[in-house]
Structures are given as C-alpha cells and as structure tokens.
Amino acid sequence: QVQLVESGGGLVQAGGSLRLSCAASGSFLSINNMAWYRQAPGKQRELVATISSGGSAYYADSMKGRFTISRYNAKNTVYLQMNSLKPEDTAVYYCHVDNVVLDAGTLFGPRWGQGTQVTVSS
C-alpha cells in the first residue's frame, strides 16, 4: 500500500521556475522507480522523467537541459525542478512509482498520485 501526494504546482510566467515534490507514504520498505508524467487537456499522458533508487535518471527529449529529477530516499520523496518553463509545459503533473518493495521478494505497482496543476503564461 502506497499513497502519493504531489505539491509545488502553480502559475508562473514563461521563463520561470517551479519545483514539484511527491511524498510517498504507506506500508512499504522502499521504492525502486519514481517518475513524473504530465497530461495536457486533449493529449495523452506522457513521461517527463524517471529516476531509479540508485539515482540513475532519464528524461524525455523536450525536458533535457531544463528539468532535473532527484530523490531523497530517506523520506521517500521525489522532486522535479523545472526551469525555463514554456507555455507548452502547461499540464497536470503526476507522480508515479513502480517496483515498490513490500517485503523481501515482494514488489507491487505501478501507483499514481492525484496530480498537481502547472500553468505557464506567455
């Protein structure tokens, strides 16, 4: 069992920055894979970035050089630092976890957060 709570969304001007946070809580030991997705109205949900428990990160092409994903394992929290924001970044951003460790030899997932709105004005 895991619950994900996102925070940090809001309204910013183009070129501005935001930092999103996602805190995981529940009856689990650790989380192998944490990620951020986003979904704009009328569009499919897309991957933004993912990070492993060891800190290996992957970014979608449009995010490279602008967004940075990180995690603090002791708090089961993943962050997304977003810089040089563009109007096309406007979307609901969702926290995602997978391969959650329940106990020795037991994994579950994926699980999704409720989402946080990011709006970038031009």
Give an account of the 3D structure:
- The chain contains no helices and 12 strands.
- It has strands spanning 3-7, 10-13, 18-25, 30-39, 46-52, 57-59, 67-72, 77-82, 91-103, 106-108, 111-112, 116-121.
- The strands form 2 sheets. Strands 2, 4, 5, 6, 9, 10, 11 and 12 form an 8-stranded mixed β-sheet that branches.
- The protein is elongated.
- The model has no long low-confidence stretch (mean pLDDT 96).
Short key terms for the protein model shown above:
122 residues; mainly beta; four-stranded antiparallel β-sheet; 12 strands; 0% helix
Q: Secondary-structure map with pairings?
A:
Elements: E1 3-7, E2 10-13, E3 18-25, E4 30-39, E5 46-52, E6 57-59, E7 67-72, E8 77-82, E9 91-103, E10 106-108, E11 111-112, E12 116-121
Parallel strand pairs: 2-12
Antiparallel strand pairs: 1-3, 3-8, 4-5, 4-9, 5-6, 7-8, 9-10, 9-11, 9-12
Question: Which structural class best describes the helix and strand composition?
Answer: mainly beta
Count all strands and give the number.
12
Measure the end-to-end span: 40 Å
Helix content: under 10%
- Give the rounded overall mean pLDDT: 96
Q: Which spans have pLDDT < 50 for at least 5 consecutive residues?
A: none
Shape: elongated
Radius of gyration: 14 Å
Largest sheet: 8 strands, mixed
- Taken as a percent bin, the fraction of beta residues is over 45%
Order of helices and strands: EEEEEEEEEEEE
Q: Number of helical runs?
A: 0
